[in-house]
Structures are given as C-alpha cells and as structure tokens.
Amino acid sequence: MTDQFISTHITLSQLNELPVLRIHNKQANATIALQGAHLIEYSPVGGTNLLFVSEAETYQQGQAIRGGVPICWPWFGPHRNQPDAPAHGFVRTCEWSHEIVADEPDRTDIRFFLITDGSDPGFPYAARVELLVSIGATLVMSLSTENLGDEPFLISQALHSYFRCNNIDDVRLHGLSGACYNDKVTGENAYVPSDLVINREIDWVIQDSGEAIALIEAGQPRFKLSRIGSRSVILWNPWIEKAKTLSHFNEEEYRQMICIEAANATEDSRLVKPRQSHVLVMEVAGGETH
Ligand SMILES: O=P(O)(O)OC[C@H]1O[C@H](O)[C@H](O)[C@@H](O)[C@@H]1O
C-alpha cells in the first residue's frame, strides 16, 4: 500500500500486515497501529523513540506487538477466574475505530474507540472504551471506560508502556520508593527500595500514591511519567531466562527496555457504575526541561 495523506500532519501507512497512522508535527513524530490502537513510536523533535519495540517484531494481524504501548483492557494479566481467557484482555489485537480530534502544528489528537456488547465471555458487559492519543511536546494517553449497561462492572487495565534504555544497568527510577509491591515472580510483598537497581527479573505490581515517576539513565533525566486516575504501576523486565521464552523478542533485548505501566491493577481495580466512566491518564515528558 502506498502512503495515504489523511490530514496536515497525519499519513496512513503500512507496517507489514498492519495499517498505521504516522504523525509528524512540529513537536514530535509518532506511529500508531490501528490494531490495538497501539502506539509504537513517540519521538520528541530532535530526539529518538522513547519507546522500545523489539527488532524481532513482525507486525502481524491478530498478534500483539512486542513493545510500544499495548492497551491491557478490561483486565490486566490473567483473567480473574477464566484461565483460558487471553492475558491482558482482548483489545490488544482488535481493530479500533478512530477519528481525528485536532491536528495543529504543535499537537495532534486522535481518538480511538471500541464498543463491546457483552458477548465476550471474559467480560459480559456493554461498554465503550476510548483512547485519546495526544502527540505534542509531551505524549498524553487517556484511556476511558464508559459503562453502557445496567449493572456495575469491575475493570483492571494498563497502559503497558515499554520504554527504551541504552543499558538497563544504568537505569534508576525516582518516585516509587517506599511504595508497597507484590512480586509476581516470588509472590512476596515488600517495599520499593530507594536504591532500586534492575539486575534480575522484575515483575512487580506496585500500589503507590500516584506520584510522578522519573527515569534517569547514567545520571541523565530521560523522561517523567505522570498519571491521573491511577494508583498502581507495573514494573517489568524479563531478564535473561524469561527473555528467551518471549514471542517477538530477541533474547539480549532485555538490556534495552523497561516496562513502566500506568495501571489500575489488583487492589486498584475500578468499579464502573452504569452510565459512568473511569479515566486513566498518562503523560510522558521527555528530556531535562520538564
Ligand atoms: O507477554 P505479554 O502477554 O505481552 O506480557 C508481558 C508482561 O506483561 C506485564 O508486564 C506482566 O506483569 C508480565 O507478567 C508479563 O510477562
């Protein structure tokens, strides 16, 4: 498929089997796959992609992309009582509808949306899920869930962001120390230490105060991640052994990534009442100026 002009700063293009929107405005470049409303690139002007995507990724229909920002909805991780249901819900591989909300020189806003009618066995409720992706000097992603039915339902969810680093040994995180986490590898609960170093498999569901998180690499601030409507974060790096088992992933790539996922997970799952909405927002501001 040849690229198709959509709007001043937006082009429809193709990555192997997947149609993608490419955004080039004055502040940033971005790429979003229509399957999964999956952001795979956010590069502030003059910089490189803040997001990690595996070199082994093949962009195939029906398969979740390894990297970028997968949308985990309406459950995060395994389903609560249906072990056969897909991990992280069912919207990562759905084709989302979209509309351009604004396309200005400094910011482009695209709304993706899906309606589920209650026919999914893992989520027998009617709901509209909407993801507003805003590309500018910062990246803003706003995931909203509206209950279209007559009974309340519980959701867990995550903006499962894979961030790129040059060397995981040099990565330090600020803003999480003292928060309580559940270690999904050992099952233990503990507190995030102030001198956290990622030097083993980390798969933590952290319940925190919602404070901003800063990633520092080799002493340099790389970005700050802020949230609204989220009091849980998942930190994930598969490390050596798990990396060998992952699909669409080269085994050495665990050194170039860290997932920091704005979430509503476990105790922070949210009840959405009829005709009400819950909104989870993440903003990522790159560089030292923020
Ligand atoms: O392989 P996926 O289904 O994309 O999941 C990748 C990872 O996602 C999250 O970070 C979970 O906490 C991990 O337990 C899981 O391994």
Shape: globular
Total beta strands: 23
CATH topology grouping: Beta-galactosidase, Chain A, domain 5
Unreliable stretches covering 5 or more consecutive residues: none
Q: How many strands, what sense, and barrel or not for the largest sheet?
A: 8 strands, antiparallel
Structural class: mainly beta
Q: CA-to-CA gap between the ends?
A: 39 Å
Written as H for each helix and E for each strand, in order along the chain, the element string is EEEEEEEEEEEEEEEEEEEEHEEE
Q: How many helix segments?
A: 1
Query: So what's the oligomer here?
Result: single chain
- Could you name the CATH class? Mainly Beta
The portion of residues assigned to helices is under 10%
What is the number of independent domains? Answer: 1
Strand fraction equals over 45%
The name of the CATH architecture is Distorted Sandwich
Radius of gyration: 18 Å
Bound molecules: 6-O-phosphono-alpha-D-glucopyranose
| Mean of all residue-level pLDDT scores | 97
Task: Provide a brief overview of the structure.
The chain is mostly beta strands.
Defining traits:
290 residues, mainly beta, Beta-galactosidase, Chain A, domain 5, eight-stranded antiparallel β-sheet, 1 helix, 23 strands, 47% strand, globular, binds 6-O-phosphono-alpha-D-glucopyranose, Aldose_1/G6P_1-epimerase, Gal_mutarotase_sf_dom
Give a structural overview.
The chain has one domain: Beta-galactosidase, Chain A, domain 5 (Distorted Sandwich). Helix content is 2%, strand content 47%. It is built from 1 helix and 23 strands. The protein has one helix spanning 239-243, and strands spanning 4-7, 10-15, 18-24, 28-33, 38-44, 71-72, 97-103, 108-117, 126-135, 139-147, 153-155, 157-159, 162-164, 171-174, 180-183, 189-191, 202-207, 213-217, 220-228, 232-237, 257-264, 270-272, 277-286. Strands 6, 12, 13, 15, 16, 17, 20 and 21 form an 8-stranded antiparallel beta sheet that branches. The chain has an 8-stranded antiparallel beta sheet with strand order 7-8-9-10-23-19-18-14, with no helix packed on it. A hairpin with a 2-residue loop joins strand 18 and strand 19. It binds 6-O-phosphono-alpha-D-glucopyranose (G6P). Residues 64, 77, 87-88, 184, 203, 234, 236, 259 line the site of 6-O-phosphono-alpha-D-glucopyranose (G6P).
